[in-house]
Amino acid sequence: MKIIVFGATGKTGKEVVKQALAQGDKVAALVRNPKKMDISHENLSLVQGDVLDGAAVDWVIKGTDGVIVALGASADMQSDIVMAQGTANIISSMKKHSVKRLIVQSSYAMSGSPEGIELLKSVGMGEEQIDAIRPVLDDKAKQEKIVRASGLEFVIVRPTMLTDTEKSGKYRVGEKLTVKPGEAIARADVADFMLKSLISNEWREKTVTISY
User: Fold this and answer.
1) Which residue windows are coiled coil (predicted)?
2) pTM of whole model > 0.70?
3) Sign of the CA dihedral 60, 98, 205, 16?
4) Contact by Cβ (8 Å): 160, 183
């Protein structure tokens, strides 16, 4: 299988790349700075470019079987376009090249629910810190809306608090998952689920939460 990963130099994106290569997939990634990618493999192709550049996105998507989006916020945490506009570019190119399967990482906190906010507070975030990341949450909300309206075979994945622990392969997934303050999930397990969702129809066109 040939897949494209957007956000491949981020922590979750790197896990996706690593696991995809381990299972024999061919992986391409559009990255702004190739030096940030510390994975080297004969089946990994890096293309320097920006997800906000529609032409670059279009070029890299041609000929792929599926797309995984693990885009993160800008360095200043004030972006209100990177995830939404970047994903819009991705969807446009997918339609152009008849690529149907799209897996997108979002965030449980994005849900806007009291539980989502309480999860942030449970790991020590105060009101000011939460307010500071609201542009990011708003961007993710726009991103999700664009994905749901795409007409593609999508899965939106909302992890709880992300950790760097090892993959367990054991986690809970659901559209209405009960989440308690302090719950977390390893990026490696999020990557595992996203890759499985590329070939499974179980959660097709659903928005799901993933946690332990």
Assistant:
1) none
2) yes
3) negative
4) yes
Tens of pLDDT, residue by residue over 54-96, are 999 999 999 999 999 999 876 555 456 799 999 999 999 999 9
In which domain, by residue range, is 10 found? 2-211
Neighbours of 23 (CB within 10 A): 8
Backbone angles phi, psi at 154, to 5 degrees: -105, 160
Query: Cα(2)–Cα(87) distance, rounded to whole angstroms?
Result: 19
The mean pLDDT of 131-149, rounded to a whole number, is 89
Query: Residue 166: pLDDT above 70?
Result: yes
DSSP states along 102-155 = EEEE--GGGG-SHHHHHHHHHTT--HHHHHHTHHHHHHHHHHHHHHHTS-SEEE
- Compute, in degrees rounded to 10, the torsion defined by CA atoms 161, 91, 74, 181: -10
Task: Quote the number of domains for the chain.
Answer: 1
User: How do beta strands 153-159 and 161-163 pair?
Assistant: unpaired
- The angle, 0 to 180 degrees and rounded to 10, between the axes of the packed helices 187-199 and 11-22 is 50
Rounded to whole angstroms, the maximal C-alpha distance in the chain is 46
User: Rounded CA gap, 162 and 154, in Å?
Assistant: 22
